[in-house]
Design brief:
alpha/beta, Nucleotidyltransferase, domain 5, 2 domains, six-stranded mixed beta sheet, two-stranded antiparallel sheet, 28% helix, elongated
Length: 337
């Protein structure tokens, strides 16, 4: 009890960030299946070993979030902490985010390589903040206690994640904290474990051999249906009809010429259709670089543009496809065809 009393008496009071100081500002984040724990501090400008604490917080997980895989949960926790502290962190140019970056560093260094659109959206939103990522050993992390608590009456209510716009700050900066020996993993080592509870998977065939198994299964199923039908002994009478006709061969003028470009019938298109055609080159550019922003768009228009771009994707050969919930993604053909 005496130690507790002494800690209460000697503990420094929280204080606001000194925006005139060039001292480092830190956000410490730790995520467990129970909650996201975080706190903000500022280093003393004269004594870097001394810290002044600004804010403490904890966001509890619901049942669905608690079932996230560890990589997905840590990425989600970092975004929730950044969003919750956005009011205090906007404008801070010397921000350092301290967390166990075993999985986070690989994901943030490879935007667009997440397993689905949700993960890519979280990565994209995190990179809108300007900070240096510092890898800290999880077992010695002070924010660990804030992430191990259950929901309590009177807890601060944090809004759900929503789209928001911030300035783009370029590639991620990264460093390893002193005393941390375990380095973060490369994304290829764990990307299939980020979100392993998906409902389905689709792959792109690259050769005829990829269809061998499917063709054999289809033929086997067709033969089973044929045998079942013949076993019923109620086949219909077959009537053969023969037609005598001279096959017509198209003239050479209809032969396909790859160098010939047909006129694009723009008169048949609505103004909305023409606008979508003009937008497609920008969509291609954004899919190659998610930081691309077309000129002349305000924040609201840019948000709408990004949401539209997520309806498409590029394959390995750079061909543009429109996403389909049925899995049969249609190919987008350019105006010149």
């Amino acid at each position: 009890m005496n130690k507790l009393k002494e800690a209460v008496v000697t503990s420094p009071a929280i204080r606001p960030i000194d925006l005139t100081s060039k001292a480092e500002v830190g956000l410490c984040v730790d995520t467990s299946y129970k909650a996201v724990g975080f706190y903000i501090y500022q280093v003393d400008e004269k004594d870097p070993t001394k810290r002044y604490y600004v804010r403490f917080g904890s966001i509890t997980m619901n049942e669905r979030e608690a079932r996230f895989s560890q990589p997905k949960r840590e990425l989600y926790g970092l975004l929730r902490a950044l969003k919750a502290c956005q009011y205090w962190l906007i404008g801070i140019r010397n921000l350092v985010v301290e967390t166990d970056a075993q999985y986070i560093k690989g994901m943030l260094s490879n935007p667009g390589m997440g397993p689905n659109a949700t993960i890519n959206q979280w990565i994209e939103d995190i990179l809108m903040f300007h900070f240096t990522l510092r890898h800290v050993k999880g077992s010695t992390f002070p924010a660990d206690g804030l992430s191990r608590r259950d929901p309590q009456p009177g807890d601060e209510i944090h809004p759900d994640l929503k789209d928001y716009e911030l300035e783009d700050h370029g590639p991620l900066k990264f460093e390893v904290a002193e005393g941390t020996s375990t380095l973060p993993k490369e994304i290829d080592e764990f990307k299939n474990k980020i979100d392993s509870r998906g409902g389905y998977m689709y792959t792109l065939a690259t050769s005829i051999d990829d269809f061998t198994v499917e063709l054999e299964d289809a033929r086997s199923h067709e033969q089973e249906l044929r045998d079942l039908y013949l076993a019923q002994e109620n086949t219909d009478e077959t009537i053969c009809q023969f037609l005598k006709a001279t096959p017509l061969i198209p003239d050479l003028e209809y032969k396909f010429d790859p160098n010939k470009r047909e006129d694009y019938p723009e008169k048949q298109w609505t103004s909305s259709g023409l606008a979508q055609d003009e937008r497609l080159p920008h969509v291609r550019t954004w899919l190659r670089n998610v930081r691309y922003r077309p000129e002349g768009l305000n924040d609201k228009q840019y948000l709408t543009f990004k949401q539209y771009c997520r309806n498409f994707f590029l394959d390995k050969e750079g061909r543009l496809y429109r996403r389909s919930t049925e899995g049969d993604h249609p190919l987008v053909v350019d105006k010149e065809h």
